[in-house]
Amino acid sequence: MFLWIVLTLVIAFLLWWLYRTRKPLVYYNKEGEIAPIVDKLQEIKKPYSPTPWLINRHIHTVYGMQYRPGSKMKPERQMITFEDGGIAALDWFKPKEVKPRCPVAIVIHTLGGGTREPCISNLCEAFTKHGIMAVVVNSRGCSGVPFKTRRMYNGLQIDDLDAAVKLIRKEKDPEDIYMVGFSMGAYMTAHYCATIGGITAGACCSHTYNGKEANKPFCSGFSGKFYQPFLMSKLKHQAFKNPFIDEETRKKIPELKTLVEFDRLLTIPLLGVKTPEEYYDQIRACDKIPITKVPIMFIGSDDDPFTSKHLMPIKEVLESQKCVFIETREGGHVSFIEGFAGRHTLCERLVPEWFEKVTEYYHKNK
Fold this sequence. Notes:
- The chain has about 375 residues and is of the alpha/beta class.
- About 40% of the residues lie in helices and about 15% in strands.
- It contains 15 helices and eleven strands.
- Helix 4 (about 120-130) crosses helix 15.
- The termini are far apart.
- The protein has one domain: Alpha/Beta hydrolase fold, catalytic domain (Rossmann fold, 3-Layer(aba) Sandwich), CATH 3.40.50.
- About 45% of the residues are buried.
- GO terms for molecular function: monoacylglycerol lipase activity; short-chain carboxylesterase activity.
- Belongs to the AB hydrolase superfamily. AB hydrolase 4 family.
């Protein structure tokens, strides 16, 4: 009897796992410039099997963000100084063999994150296995670097990012430069690709699409009770480390409860906008997609607790020349863990191949 129960449970578990295993949905303009590139992608044609013991979006997200092992590679740190005296860290992950004019993938972390995030370090390691150098462009005040100016991480100002791109181009002379961002880093990537361009390809993982509207699901239910306090704790800790915040403002930091309140007090005064909502409107994905100068792959999950499925910019992607959207049923936020062991992600399969296929296409059709 006991064996029958065990066998039944095993069969039920396997059937449940098979039910969850599905090919991602792929959206792109079949008449657009992007079409011949997307048609050559092989990884998007393979099934995505979410790790079976990550049984819901919250467990998936928490494990992916906090408990999934990071890469064991030790990056080489390079400091960059900006024109206003601010500094940031560039953390380099290099292949065993660095070829002349080796391509470089710039990786942009989440809000309040950095190189040590599992999604960041593991993707960097994945790039090195494809012969691509990866560099994490940390924001000011992140990854153990002290603040030298009042400025903090935000999705609108991309001059620091552009300074890093120019430095990389000057010092490494890569044949191609790519850019990939997670969450807020995805906002910066899309904004950079639409505003400045000049790189080969971009990728946006767990872009929340519309900051103003995404705040509604993010502030309600479990997300509002768990993720928002967690994020606010990180952001307030970071703000307290900034010695350039005046004392009057500093006294108000402990009272901040939401990201909107944080942005109203600490972010928008330096951006030249009047409200957090105006700031969020200036970096919406739907406005960047039609004007992007660079091919972009978006990867998003239906169950992302930081946003809502109905905000996915599918319509804009289908009308665009340069964008493709990969939609999965599961994946949580900045996670997309797959396989029974829960060590690897869908992004680590899709993004390197995407960059390679874009490169092949444009080099062939120069």
